[in-house]
Amino acid sequence: MSRPFARALTASLSVLTAAAVLPVSSAAPAAADGGIIGGRQVQVSDSPWTVAVSSRDRFGGTRAGQFCGGVVVARTMVLTAAHCMSRSVLGVARGEVRDLKVIAGRSDLRADEGAEIPVREAWVNPDYDGSTNSGDVAVLTLATPLPEGYVLPMADEGDPAYEPGTRAEVYGWGDTTGAGDYAHTLRAAQVHVLPDSVCQEAYPGNSDGTYLPASMLCAGEARGGKDACQGDSGGPLVARGELIGLVSWGSGCGRAGSPGVYTRVSEVLRVLRKHS
Ligand code: 4AZ
């Protein structure tokens, strides 16, 4: 592992231990009016840790090249999903993508507000397993730091935010219908942390993946209707003002009996400590 990653990680972990829970302005849920799936339009100023991961070279310019979500966990450190950095998503090897950027402070991808920050280095979890989807995390090191107020603390193991029944919000610019209708503006949906048993029953192991509770987190609504979807991957699942999950996978979007599966952030912390 290279030095810049280790430095960013050290910074991040000191932020983590120093930070009290960031008071997230919990925008009162307005009436539901569409997706992420079953979500609502929100302003990125209320969730500045939510960023878009972009490459215009690979994905075109109409939505500023957005193809995944990400979350700011230190001033120069963004987490996203490992699968967002894969050849199957990028179409080429990651090293061939010359214009990988993080877009911060921009709710509407058609606007030019906020900042586009080049990614100086992308580190993909070497333990990511594309068959189960476990370990689905990558770290993007930014060329220039974001303001401290953009940083969202990560919930460590044992944090009450992981308890089943906890309300959580998922954010992204992804598909709002499951039919390839990608959002131009940031959206959020309120879901609940679900017991591991729900996802173990839904995903005992098939071509989509295998639910592994040590490294994954199950969230959604029993009836379906609220969920993350394609294009939201790598984006944040937030509970009690802390990051608990990264959008990772699931079977379809918003279907009853097929909850969303997230990368468990307490496991991300373990992975980061192991590699720092
Ligand atoms: C995807 O394809 C994807 N409903 C992300 C999240 C979910 C399903 C698919 C969860 O990136």
TrEMBL record:
<dbReference type="GO" id="GO:0006508">
    <property type="term" value="P:proteolysis"/>
</dbReference>
<feature type="domain" description="Peptidase S1">
    <location>
        <begin position="36"/>
        <end position="276"/>
    </location>
</feature>
<keyword id="KW-1015">Disulfide bond</keyword>
<protein>
    <submittedName>
        <fullName>Serine protease</fullName>
    </submittedName>
</protein>
<dbReference type="InterPro" id="IPR043504">
    <property type="entry name" value="Peptidase_S1_PA_chymotrypsin"/>
</dbReference>
<dbReference type="Pfam" id="PF00089">
    <property type="entry name" value="Trypsin"/>
</dbReference>
<keyword id="KW-0732">Signal</keyword>
<dbReference type="InterPro" id="IPR001314">
    <property type="entry name" value="Peptidase_S1A"/>
</dbReference>
<keyword id="KW-0378">Hydrolase</keyword>
<keyword id="KW-0645">Protease</keyword>
<comment type="similarity">
    <text>Belongs to the peptidase S1 family.</text>
</comment>
<dbReference type="InterPro" id="IPR050430">
    <property type="entry name" value="Peptidase_S1"/>
</dbReference>
<dbReference type="InterPro" id="IPR001254">
    <property type="entry name" value="Trypsin_dom"/>
</dbReference>
<dbReference type="InterPro" id="IPR009003">
    <property type="entry name" value="Peptidase_S1_PA"/>
</dbReference>
<keyword id="KW-0720">Serine protease</keyword>
<dbReference type="GO" id="GO:0004252">
    <property type="term" value="F:serine-type endopeptidase activity"/>
</dbReference>
<dbReference type="InterPro" id="IPR018114">
    <property type="entry name" value="TRYPSIN_HIS"/>
</dbReference>
<dbReference type="InterPro" id="IPR033116">
    <property type="entry name" value="TRYPSIN_SER"/>
</dbReference>
<feature type="signal peptide">
    <location>
        <begin position="1"/>
        <end position="30"/>
    </location>
</feature>
